[in-house]
């Protein structure tokens, strides 16, 4: 085929000639992890490098500046299985300096490239491929990506097995999508979107509907789903350092109220996010007015106490304990903090420590019946643990005794038994004078008749 100018400015800087047609219509999107084989040569045919010679395909992220410009331009136009020759002018390759010693100054290069395959851009937090992005339309690259808390306006099209299960416009604060039925994987991906971007997302179950599935959408457990997501617009989140102290107080009260509403709706993960925002907005703030300091500390104290309650509800007992410790630094005799820390210790199978917290609660308020019940629960658990330990130790000692007995028996079995076998039975050589056994001795082989012949051989003893 004839070489075609594919350079952005049509300046002849990147010429592409297709040697072998690829399969399908899809080409890799920016950010895709592509896998290719290549052979590079100078214009006189001198080979500079080859992945085929190493028998190792080359992988890189497309349009992330990991390769020369000509590659980012040319590979983006290739289909799976396609083989193409790229002729790359110096300014799209290694420029005036070249890449000594193999590539001289101002070198025009030729690359034969085979597109093997590609995967979407990995947006998953653990980089395990659980959220892949395939960009359809790039967004406004001059704008920053939306951050958690930003109000986003998006269009979502969800698909499973090529069947659409949702198609809607939705607006929500990033990080609170659960309240609108937006899956976690979409929210995570949106933090990498530009305004106006449209992309296809492939999301594995851990960031989608997990092992519960979505029966109303006919989505089974542990299913991978796809979404077409368009970020139409977003409003930036409020930055704490741009606010006055009073504005921070107002904003924190809003977060606290939202957290309480989420808690009442059993949406504990969202409630946790809101209470953490209260702390992040106020924790580092300095103020010299006593009343304002008191209001600030009360909000932070309430946030820690509510976090502890959310953690207890979600069986995150270590986190609950830590939240209570932080609350107690602000209010050392706080009943709720002591009580909830006691609950956390009890859930962590530490009734002796929990007991002290519940006893402290009763010292503060002797009428606290809930603490009294927990004290009873602690004592019962301690008693059960002691009984279990005694039984365990008893069984352990019995086991050790049995093992010692077995060892002693094995030791005895290893010693000669004088009452059995050739040594234990009276043989002829053991009888006085080597005489034959009497009839009585034959019937009773372990008895020796010393004077079986009626002689007086022992009369002088």
Automatic annotation (TrEMBL):
* Pfam families in the record: FKBP_C, TPR_2, TPR_8
Can you state which reaction this protein catalyses? Answer: [protein]-peptidylproline (omega=180) = [protein]-peptidylproline (omega=0)
* Annotated compartments: Cytoplasm, Cytoskeleton; Cytoplasm, Cytosol; Mitochondrion; Nucleus
Query: Under the cellular component aspect of Gene Ontology, which terms does the record hold?
Result: cytosol; microtubule; mitochondrion; nucleus
Keyword Signal among UniProt keywords: no
Q: Extract the PROSITE patterns matched here.
A: FKBP_PPIASE, TPR
- Keyword Coiled coil tagged: no
According to the UniProt entry, what is the EC number of this protein? 5.2.1.8
| TPR repeat positions | 252-285, 335-368
Segments forming domain PPIase FKBP-type: 31-119, 149-235
**MF GO annotations:** peptidyl-prolyl cis-trans isomerase activity
Keyword field:
Acetylation, Cytoplasm, Cytoskeleton, Isomerase, Methylation, Microtubule, Mitochondrion, Nucleus, Phosphoprotein, Repeat, Rotamase, TPR repeat
Query: What is the uppermost EC class here?
Result: isomerase
Entry-linked SMART domains: TPR (SM00028)
Highest taxon listed in the record's lineage: Eukaryota
Cross-referenced Gene3D superfamilies: 3.10.50.40, Tetratricopeptide repeat domain (1.25.40.10)
What is the name of this protein? peptidylprolyl isomerase
What phylogenetic lineage does the species belong to?
Eukaryota, Metazoa, Ecdysozoa, Arthropoda, Hexapoda
